[in-house]
Amino acid sequence: MSFDLIETILFALLTIGIVGGAVGVVFLNRITGAALLMAFTFLCNAGMFVLLGAETIAAFQVLIYVGAITVLILYGVMFTPQQERPYGLFFQKQTPWAALFVAPIGIFVALFAFSFRDSENPSTKGGDLVPLATSVFRDFAFPFEVASVLLLAAMIGAIVLVKRDDE
Amino acid sequence: MNIPVGAFIAVSSVLFFIGVAGVLMRRNAVVILMCVELMLNAANLALVAFSRRGGSADERGSVFVVFIFVIAAAEVAVGLAIVLSSYRNRPTVDVDELHAMKG
User: Fold this and answer.
1) Are B62 and A75 an interchain contact pair (Cβ–Cβ within 8 Å)?
2) Of A10, A15, A52, A101, which residue is least crowded by CB atoms under 10 Å?
3) With a cut of 0.95, is the ipTM above it?
Protein backbone atom coordinates (compact mmCIF):
# COMPACT_ATOMS: atom_id res chain seq x y z
CA MET A 1 0.00 0.00 0.00
CA SER A 2 1.63 3.18 -1.18
CA PHE A 3 1.73 6.36 0.81
CA ASP A 4 -0.24 8.21 -1.85
CA LEU A 5 -3.17 5.86 -1.42
CA ILE A 6 -3.09 6.26 2.37
CA GLU A 7 -2.97 10.04 1.95
CA THR A 8 -6.00 10.00 -0.34
CA ILE A 9 -7.96 7.77 2.02
CA LEU A 10 -7.07 10.02 4.96
CA PHE A 11 -8.14 13.08 2.99
CA ALA A 12 -11.49 11.48 2.15
CA LEU A 13 -12.11 10.47 5.77
CA LEU A 14 -11.19 13.93 7.07
CA THR A 15 -13.44 15.56 4.48
CA ILE A 16 -16.35 13.37 5.55
CA GLY A 17 -15.61 14.23 9.17
CA ILE A 18 -15.43 17.97 8.54
CA VAL A 19 -18.55 18.20 6.39
CA GLY A 20 -20.57 15.77 8.51
CA GLY A 21 -19.56 17.47 11.74
CA ALA A 22 -20.37 20.93 10.41
CA VAL A 23 -23.76 19.80 9.09
CA GLY A 24 -24.42 18.28 12.51
CA VAL A 25 -23.56 21.59 14.20
CA VAL A 26 -26.10 23.35 11.99
CA PHE A 27 -28.92 20.83 12.21
CA LEU A 28 -28.62 19.21 15.65
CA ASN A 29 -31.26 20.42 18.07
CA ARG A 30 -29.35 19.35 21.19
CA ILE A 31 -26.88 22.16 21.78
CA THR A 32 -24.40 20.06 23.75
CA GLY A 33 -24.21 17.57 20.91
CA ALA A 34 -23.69 20.42 18.47
CA ALA A 35 -20.80 21.75 20.58
CA LEU A 36 -19.13 18.33 20.73
CA LEU A 37 -19.57 17.88 16.96
CA MET A 38 -17.94 21.29 16.54
CA ALA A 39 -14.95 19.99 18.51
CA PHE A 40 -14.88 16.93 16.23
CA THR A 41 -14.88 19.20 13.16
CA PHE A 42 -11.96 21.16 14.61
CA LEU A 43 -10.09 17.90 15.24
CA CYS A 44 -10.62 16.78 11.63
CA ASN A 45 -9.40 20.20 10.52
CA ALA A 46 -6.23 19.65 12.55
CA GLY A 47 -5.80 16.40 10.61
CA MET A 48 -6.07 18.41 7.38
CA PHE A 49 -3.27 20.68 8.63
CA VAL A 50 -1.11 17.62 9.28
CA LEU A 51 -1.83 16.38 5.75
CA LEU A 52 -0.68 19.76 4.46
CA GLY A 53 2.53 19.46 6.45
CA ALA A 54 1.74 22.23 8.95
CA GLU A 55 2.24 20.30 12.19
CA THR A 56 2.72 23.36 14.39
CA ILE A 57 -0.56 24.88 13.23
CA ALA A 58 -2.23 21.52 13.86
CA ALA A 59 -0.90 21.51 17.43
CA PHE A 60 -2.18 25.07 17.96
CA GLN A 61 -5.52 24.03 16.50
CA VAL A 62 -5.87 21.16 18.97
CA LEU A 63 -4.75 23.31 21.91
CA ILE A 64 -6.81 26.43 21.20
CA TYR A 65 -9.87 25.30 19.25
CA VAL A 66 -10.44 21.75 20.52
CA GLY A 67 -9.28 22.67 24.01
CA ALA A 68 -10.02 26.25 24.91
CA ILE A 69 -12.80 27.42 22.59
CA THR A 70 -14.85 24.23 22.95
CA VAL A 71 -14.68 24.52 26.74
CA LEU A 72 -15.76 28.17 26.55
CA ILE A 73 -18.70 27.30 24.28
CA LEU A 74 -19.71 24.45 26.59
CA TYR A 75 -19.68 26.91 29.50
CA GLY A 76 -21.97 29.16 27.48
CA VAL A 77 -24.27 26.21 26.83
CA MET A 78 -24.26 25.42 30.54
CA PHE A 79 -25.19 28.93 31.67
CA THR A 80 -28.02 29.57 29.22
CA PRO A 81 -31.32 27.71 28.87
CA GLN A 82 -31.62 25.66 25.71
CA GLN A 83 -35.24 25.64 24.77
CA GLU A 84 -36.23 23.77 21.64
CA ARG A 85 -37.33 26.03 18.82
CA PRO A 86 -37.67 25.44 15.13
CA TYR A 87 -35.05 26.77 12.75
CA GLY A 88 -35.47 30.09 11.07
CA LEU A 89 -37.83 30.06 8.14
CA PHE A 90 -35.06 29.48 5.69
CA PHE A 91 -35.62 26.13 4.03
CA GLN A 92 -39.38 25.98 4.43
CA LYS A 93 -40.31 28.64 1.90
CA GLN A 94 -38.99 29.39 -1.55
CA THR A 95 -36.72 26.35 -1.65
CA PRO A 96 -36.86 25.96 -5.47
CA TRP A 97 -36.00 29.61 -5.99
CA ALA A 98 -33.13 29.40 -3.53
CA ALA A 99 -31.80 26.26 -5.22
CA LEU A 100 -32.03 28.03 -8.59
CA PHE A 101 -29.73 30.78 -7.36
CA VAL A 102 -27.45 28.67 -5.17
CA ALA A 103 -26.62 26.05 -7.81
CA PRO A 104 -24.80 28.44 -10.20
CA ILE A 105 -22.88 29.89 -7.25
CA GLY A 106 -21.92 26.37 -6.16
CA ILE A 107 -20.73 25.47 -9.65
CA PHE A 108 -18.73 28.69 -9.87
CA VAL A 109 -17.12 28.10 -6.46
CA ALA A 110 -16.20 24.53 -7.40
CA LEU A 111 -14.63 25.65 -10.68
CA PHE A 112 -12.82 28.46 -8.87
CA ALA A 113 -11.51 26.16 -6.13
CA PHE A 114 -10.16 23.55 -8.52
CA SER A 115 -8.61 26.20 -10.78
CA PHE A 116 -5.78 26.66 -8.27
CA ARG A 117 -2.68 24.67 -9.12
CA ASP A 118 0.18 23.65 -6.89
CA SER A 119 3.29 25.74 -7.14
CA GLU A 120 6.25 24.34 -9.03
CA ASN A 121 8.45 24.73 -5.98
CA PRO A 122 6.33 24.01 -2.92
CA SER A 123 7.50 24.78 0.57
CA THR A 124 10.53 23.04 1.93
CA LYS A 125 10.15 19.56 3.25
CA GLY A 126 10.01 19.13 6.97
CA GLY A 127 7.97 20.90 9.55
CA ASP A 128 6.69 24.43 9.52
CA LEU A 129 7.95 25.40 12.96
CA VAL A 130 11.17 27.10 11.89
CA PRO A 131 9.71 29.22 9.03
CA LEU A 132 6.67 30.07 11.16
CA ALA A 133 8.77 31.20 14.12
CA THR A 134 11.08 33.15 11.83
CA SER A 135 8.14 34.97 10.26
CA VAL A 136 6.35 35.68 13.53
CA PHE A 137 9.34 36.95 15.48
CA ARG A 138 11.16 38.77 12.67
CA ASP A 139 8.65 40.16 10.16
CA PHE A 140 5.53 40.19 12.34
CA ALA A 141 6.95 41.02 15.74
CA PHE A 142 4.91 44.21 16.17
CA PRO A 143 1.54 42.64 15.13
CA PHE A 144 2.37 39.81 17.51
CA GLU A 145 2.63 42.28 20.39
CA VAL A 146 -0.57 44.01 19.27
CA ALA A 147 -2.31 40.61 19.32
CA SER A 148 -1.24 40.13 22.93
CA VAL A 149 -2.70 43.53 23.80
CA LEU A 150 -5.90 42.50 22.02
CA LEU A 151 -6.11 39.34 24.14
CA LEU A 152 -5.62 41.39 27.30
CA ALA A 153 -8.34 43.86 26.23
CA ALA A 154 -10.72 41.00 25.39
CA MET A 155 -10.09 39.39 28.78
CA ILE A 156 -10.76 42.63 30.65
CA GLY A 157 -13.82 43.32 28.50
CA ALA A 158 -15.27 39.87 29.13
CA ILE A 159 -14.76 40.23 32.89
CA VAL A 160 -16.36 43.69 32.92
CA LEU A 161 -19.32 42.51 30.83
CA VAL A 162 -20.29 39.64 33.12
CA LYS A 163 -19.39 41.27 36.45
CA ARG A 164 -22.34 41.71 38.79
CA ASP A 165 -22.96 45.21 40.07
CA ASP A 166 -24.27 44.26 43.48
CA GLU A 167 -20.90 43.17 44.86
CA MET B 1 1.76 15.47 -2.15
CA ASN B 2 -0.65 13.91 -4.59
CA ILE B 3 -3.72 15.79 -3.36
CA PRO B 4 -4.04 19.04 -5.31
CA VAL B 5 -4.41 22.29 -3.44
CA GLY B 6 -7.81 22.80 -5.09
CA ALA B 7 -9.26 19.89 -3.12
CA PHE B 8 -8.35 21.60 0.15
CA ILE B 9 -9.84 24.86 -1.10
CA ALA B 10 -13.05 23.03 -2.07
CA VAL B 11 -13.36 21.52 1.43
CA SER B 12 -12.68 24.94 2.92
CA SER B 13 -15.40 26.63 0.85
CA VAL B 14 -17.93 23.90 1.67
CA LEU B 15 -17.17 24.35 5.39
CA PHE B 16 -17.51 28.12 5.04
CA PHE B 17 -20.92 27.88 3.37
CA ILE B 18 -22.16 25.44 5.99
CA GLY B 19 -21.13 28.01 8.59
CA VAL B 20 -22.99 30.77 6.73
CA ALA B 21 -26.11 28.59 6.54
CA GLY B 22 -25.87 27.94 10.27
CA VAL B 23 -25.58 31.63 11.11
CA LEU B 24 -28.63 32.37 8.97
CA MET B 25 -30.77 29.44 10.13
CA ARG B 26 -30.20 28.98 13.83
CA ARG B 27 -31.77 31.24 16.42
CA ASN B 28 -29.69 30.32 19.44
CA ALA B 29 -26.91 32.85 20.01
CA VAL B 30 -24.46 30.20 21.25
CA VAL B 31 -24.97 28.09 18.12
CA ILE B 32 -24.44 31.19 15.98
CA LEU B 33 -21.08 31.67 17.73
CA MET B 34 -20.20 28.04 16.95
CA CYS B 35 -21.02 28.58 13.27
CA VAL B 36 -18.84 31.70 13.19
CA GLU B 37 -16.01 29.54 14.55
CA LEU B 38 -16.62 27.06 11.72
CA MET B 39 -16.26 29.89 9.19
CA LEU B 40 -13.01 31.05 10.80
CA ASN B 41 -11.75 27.47 10.62
CA ALA B 42 -12.57 27.31 6.92
CA ALA B 43 -10.50 30.45 6.37
CA ASN B 44 -7.66 28.85 8.35
CA LEU B 45 -7.73 25.78 6.12
CA ALA B 46 -7.55 27.90 2.95
CA LEU B 47 -4.70 30.01 4.36
CA VAL B 48 -2.64 26.99 5.40
CA ALA B 49 -3.24 25.27 2.04
CA PHE B 50 -2.04 28.32 0.10
CA SER B 51 0.84 28.87 2.51
CA ARG B 52 2.15 25.31 2.20
CA ARG B 53 1.53 24.79 -1.51
CA GLY B 54 1.90 28.33 -2.79
CA GLY B 55 5.63 28.17 -3.22
CA SER B 56 6.71 31.02 -0.99
CA ALA B 57 9.72 30.33 1.19
CA ASP B 58 8.35 32.00 4.32
CA GLU B 59 5.13 30.88 5.94
CA ARG B 60 3.17 34.10 5.65
CA GLY B 61 -0.22 32.36 5.53
CA SER B 62 0.52 30.36 8.66
CA VAL B 63 1.37 33.60 10.48
CA PHE B 64 -2.09 34.93 9.63
CA VAL B 65 -3.56 31.66 10.90
CA VAL B 66 -1.86 32.25 14.25
CA PHE B 67 -3.39 35.74 14.39
CA ILE B 68 -6.79 34.27 13.51
CA PHE B 69 -6.40 31.89 16.47
CA VAL B 70 -5.85 34.89 18.73
CA ILE B 71 -8.82 36.79 17.30
CA ALA B 72 -11.09 33.73 17.46
CA ALA B 73 -10.27 33.23 21.13
CA ALA B 74 -10.93 36.92 21.89
CA GLU B 75 -14.11 36.88 19.81
CA VAL B 76 -15.62 33.85 21.50
CA ALA B 77 -14.75 35.16 24.97
CA VAL B 78 -16.34 38.57 24.36
CA GLY B 79 -19.26 37.04 22.44
CA LEU B 80 -20.13 34.66 25.26
CA ALA B 81 -19.80 37.51 27.76
CA ILE B 82 -22.29 39.55 25.70
CA VAL B 83 -24.66 36.57 25.47
CA LEU B 84 -24.47 35.98 29.23
CA SER B 85 -24.96 39.63 30.16
CA SER B 86 -27.90 40.02 27.76
CA TYR B 87 -29.34 36.80 29.18
CA ARG B 88 -29.17 38.39 32.61
CA ASN B 89 -31.25 41.36 31.45
CA ARG B 90 -33.72 39.41 29.31
CA PRO B 91 -33.95 35.67 29.98
CA THR B 92 -33.53 34.48 26.41
CA VAL B 93 -30.73 33.54 24.03
CA ASP B 94 -33.06 33.60 21.04
CA VAL B 95 -31.71 36.21 18.66
CA ASP B 96 -35.19 36.82 17.20
CA GLU B 97 -36.33 38.10 20.58
CA LEU B 98 -33.33 40.34 21.18
CA HIS B 99 -34.56 43.38 19.36
CA ALA B 100 -34.06 46.17 21.90
CA MET B 101 -32.03 48.17 19.38
CA LYS B 102 -34.41 47.58 16.49
CA GLY B 103 -35.47 50.85 14.89
Assistant:
1) no
2) A101
3) no
